[in-house]
Amino acid sequence: MYPTPMQHDALLEQCGQARYVWNLALEQWSMWTRDNGATPGFAEQCRQLTKARAVFGWLRAGSQTVQQQALRDFDQAVRSFQRGTHRRPSWRKAGLREGFRIVGSQASKTVKLNRKWAVVNIPKVGWVRLRVSRAIPAAKSYRVTLDHAGRWHLAFAVVPDPLPPPGTGQVVGVDRGITVSAALSTGELLTCPGPSEIEQRRLRQLHRRLSRSCQGSGRGQRVKAAIARLYARSSDRRKNWVERTSTDLARRFDIIRVEDLRIAQMTARPKPKADPGRPGRYLPNRQRAKAGLNRGVLSNGWGLLVQRLEHKAPGRVEKVNPAYTSRTCSVCGHCARENRKSQAVFRCVSCGHQANADVNAAVNIAAGRAVSARGETPERVSSKREPQHATSA
Predict the structure, then answer these.
(1) CA 94, CA 312: separation in Å to the nearest integer?
(2) Domain boundary among 132, 156, 180
């Protein structure tokens, strides 16, 4: 979206009012105890909002549709948390997760000017110009958001149709890594584009300049905005690569198998280790090395790639146990640490099979092959257990 300076200020006010209403509802919900009874629900909070708008002029100047929708979104967030499908609702902070949602007849007030431009009518703001990146759907709601780079976006709430399978019966395995973002069992090596050398040099210069600026100064704010724009550009490239790759895989293969990785736990900060010999001191926990690994995992879009595959190919994405898939030979099934010669070279010490290490792991994933701690594949374990079940029966 490309609002005028006055519309920009009006949108920021709408975001602040939606954030204020959300935080008030969260504060009421957080004060629940067994002695005080139930907290106000959505209907009671709407009545309280009407009384508050009659008292406070700055709240009355905003859109009641936006404020009530913030309460409705919070009520839905609480219900999803109680069902166990989503996380606990958290506080909204200024400058983070800025945005609001519009539901109802206002959502359909979008007029297309030409092939690339359109305008949308936002309550209390007016007609705002926007760049059309795809066909405007017949949505009943849309969400206005502000990212860290200061860009406004308009997202329509529409569930796209899944991509049809090709019907060839082909199965592909996807191995995600740091050096190679995604290695396919077909031998293809896909790399997520990152920041260029010029951008990395520019980022280092900006970080040095930020360290020399005073906290809260105008110069520091301008440097932060420049850093945010560079990071946003890199994030846009990563999302574009994920969309193209997931669409290509969903159109080419019937079954897509990936490793069942818990990325949130993998990228968690290492816990401090207390030094028993020196009270109040801590042992080295390799936090700096872990931080570099976390950046590599997140910059390659591991979780986003699988998420978009599940959206575009529902029911066709299978998750495989990742145990020892990188050490197992895809030809003979021999599992040993010595098979992985380096990050990129795999050479089996049993049969002499040599291939790219990531491609070899992708072939194992495509076959659904995982290895237990004893070095046995599931097929071998099941073959050993079958006679025992037969004798017991």
Answers:
(1) 34
(2) 156
Environment class of residue 326 by beta-carbon count within 10 Å: exposed (0-12), middle (13-18) or buried (19+)?
buried
226-259, pLDDT tens digit by residue? 999 999 999 999 999 999 999 999 999 999 999 9
Do 149 and 196 fall into the same domain?
Answer: no
Q: Considering only CA atoms, which of 332, 353, 359, 320 is closest in space to residue 175?
A: 359
Is residue 123 within 8 Å of 106, Cβ to Cβ?
A: yes
Task: Give the number of other Cβ atoms within 10 Å of residue 241's Cβ.
Answer: 21
Q: Is residue 330 part of a domain?
A: no
CA angle (389, 333, 186) in 5-degree steps: 120
DSSP-derived letter for residue 321 is -
The answer to whether residues 305 and 319 touch, using CB atoms and an 8 Å cutoff, is: no
User: Cα-Cα-Cα-Cα dihedral of 190, 195, 196, 201, to 10°?
Assistant: -150
- Tokens at residue 140, please? 């009943």
Q: How many domains does the chain have?
A: 3
Q: How far apart are the first and last CA of the chain?
A: 69
Q: How far, CA to CA in Å, does 65 sit from each of 7, 90, 164, 208, 233? A: 18, 22, 38, 44, 33
Looking at the domain assignment, is residue 49 inside a domain? yes
pTM for the full predicted model: 0.80
Task: Please say whether the beta carbons of 359 and 189 come within 8 A.
Answer: yes
**Structural domain that includes position 345:** 337-392
